[in-house]
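Researcher: Going back to the complex we discussed earlier. I've cleaned up the inputs and rechecked each line, so this should be the final set. Can you rerun the prediction on the complete assembly and write out the structure?
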Amino acid sequence: MEHTVNSRSRLVVVGGDAAGMSAASQARRLRDSRELEIVALERGEHTSYSACGIPYLVSGVVPRKQDLVARDPDTFRRDFAIDVRTGAEATGIDLDQRSVAVRGTGGGHWTERFDHLMVATGAVPRELELPGCAAAGILGVQTLDDGIAARAFLDRNQPREAVVVGCGYIGLEMAEALVQRGIRVRVIDSGEEPMSALDPDMGRMVREALQGMGVEVHLRERVTGFRSQRDRVTGVLTAQGEYPAEAVILGTGVRPDSDLAREAGLDIGPTGGVAVDARMRTSAPGVWAAGDCVESFHRVTRGPAVVPLGTHANKQGRVAGTNIGGGYARFEGVLGTAITKVCGLEVAHTGLNEEEARRAGFVSEAVAVESTSRAGYYPGAERMTVKLRAERGSGRLLGGQIVGWENAGKRVDVLATALWNGMTVEDMAGMDLSYAPPFSPVWDPVLIAARKVAERC
Amino acid sequence: MEHTVNSRSRLVVVGGDAAGMSAASQARRLRDSRELEIVALERGEHTSYSACGIPYLVSGVVPRKQDLVARDPDTFRRDFAIDVRTGAEATGIDLDQRSVAVRGTGGGHWTERFDHLMVATGAVPRELELPGCAAAGILGVQTLDDGIAARAFLDRNQPREAVVVGCGYIGLEMAEALVQRGIRVRVIDSGEEPMSALDPDMGRMVREALQGMGVEVHLRERVTGFRSQRDRVTGVLTAQGEYPAEAVILGTGVRPDSDLAREAGLDIGPTGGVAVDARMRTSAPGVWAAGDCVESFHRVTRGPAVVPLGTHANKQGRVAGTNIGGGYARFEGVLGTAITKVCGLEVAHTGLNEEEARRAGFVSEAVAVESTSRAGYYPGAERMTVKLRAERGSGRLLGGQIVGWENAGKRVDVLATALWNGMTVEDMAGMDLSYAPPFSPVWDPVLIAARKVAERC
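Model: Rerun complete. Updated structure for the full complex:
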């Protein structure tokens, strides 16, 4: 059964960040307030902020927290006629009664009736239940409030030494933020090289660049606990030893916050994310979900994947909002594309790395090609390495990774577009990509890599 | 009849630049000198140079002419066993006798017998047979020798004022070169706006940027002649008036140099380029052609197009060389992708503009979206405009144009990849492109433009 919008119906949105508010505002574009009442429940204070901007708030590159807020609650109320309730946490969903139980930060409890329900509960940090983890100075950076608190702690205490736990995208960005603040940084990661999204040969380049920036990189180490004095962190413990730290950043990743959905009886997928179809419908009629709390269709593995990124949250929210508003839209899946930079080094990937390809059952070949960002003779040409992986036999592109300096990273979008279309590397090698000496060698690094891996397939 | 390589056969290459030498060296990779003798005839002194780098040689950004030479004749002789003859101009091809008539710069004449013939005669400037055009200081920039001569003229005479005739890619790059040399620059172009490859609304942005750099832009004017004193240019004449100029750069474009092929009886296409198939075979067995002298298959119009760019010359030459060497390769066509920059402004396009789409019989819709190169709150975010054109009804992408500052231009490769795959703009709008605040707003400009044009189709 589909719930469509008849007379005046009511949409309740749980979670007021990218996915929830994209859905709400898109539904509003299609249905005015005489047709659709929209209530958005947000347990924090902020709506629609750029979580991806938090490292830049912590570093000070972005000066004010307001800079990260795309639209505040008042804007949604005024311009979109969306009844945003901050400090309002959804504590339960009753699918039979079609209502949400809410607890206010002030202590009040009430319920909200819905015709449509949008679940956009986001993600929570992976638990790191370690001895001493409650000490001051052990800082999460997942929500805007986390980021504000982390920056305040660093401003107030001016630590000289810090540890970043986890060296994925967030870990890298936080390492950059701390370096920019003049803090001596150690990163600790359990992997063979930083950035487990990359193959180790590409991760090695990231490690060498980090080391070149003065960052100490400790690999194959797991954090076992924290040392503190007077409830303030002083060190990080691993099986290998202890590292002094006046501040610790937890960059260990997140998992879908799907508990509320699970308790309500919505289907949860094998990855732990809320299961949705391409129109962002959950297993219950009239209940939609989007953003970091859902699992998405991965276009290469053809299976579910959790990719908690603002870009998907925005797209999925918009798709849900279009469908809630009576339109038709589909979210056509993810490739796992991601990009970051650390002090000038650009790192990006899309699709499957070696380990992911193997786990997905592909037999693959890969080639890493070192080239330059401009014609070799043009000033400012910088090194970049492009690695492509393709299925043996068919030559179908499976994934790509880029590590390099200025202008390297965004080239991953060419790989993502090729991957989106299921191209073979042979076909890619002939593509008409742009060339002029300030932008590329005459054989673009992407074309060379495609040709070389095609020769192996 | 196919000519394949039996016992020892002989390949004669006419033209020793990108296409010719790519073919020669690729054929050599597949066939050693016991199987294939290779003779390359080049009327100039240089082989395999980057013609696209000439503006940067003239500006001085690239200091030495050798920097532009990828491989010199001695390298080809030594490392590839290719008998390169410089100062050797092919004056006729006898398809029955399978021989090429050659004239040496020293005055000698001889013939070269061939089994395979590679025609890579390149392009010649469009004739500008105007009164006074032989005066000193009227400078072409098509060959490396032209570039060397232009730079020498500018070094020697230190002009204060110069005119660039034609404001396409080369005209823009030469305007930048002259600005960088501290010369006052006027550009004169017959079009409504600079860069006729772009729609006028995008060309206007280029004009405004040029004007912002102090370049005088004269549009809808045709050059009618040149004024000179003592055989040295002093001014450029148009119907509207006279512009003082101590140097004039001719940036009026090129046409395929297909005369030799035509006289030999090879099929010439409707564009004036040598007609070839996807394997770079001409109408005569065992005769191949590639580079600026041929016409290529345009993947959007599905018709022939002349796109004289080094990137195609290299790819086509490589394809021809593979086939000559007994392998199998195809050149899968062009999109007309191009990119340039002028003093920081990046300009790029791919596929069809409004006029080209109309002429090709498409009814199209287009949207130009202004966005930024980074998240709005991230330092260094620069304006960029992305314009996409799609076929009405089907929504198929027909072309894209980008004008913007730092990091704008190379995004055209995403458009080119989408175009290569025949994507619809609706499908493009959902793509998983990379996002992080230093690289893009959360809705990448390409995605926004795709969505907006999809809404119109």
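Model: Worth noting: Chain B touches chain A through 66 residues (CB under 8 Å).
Researcher: Good, that matches what I expected from the previous run.
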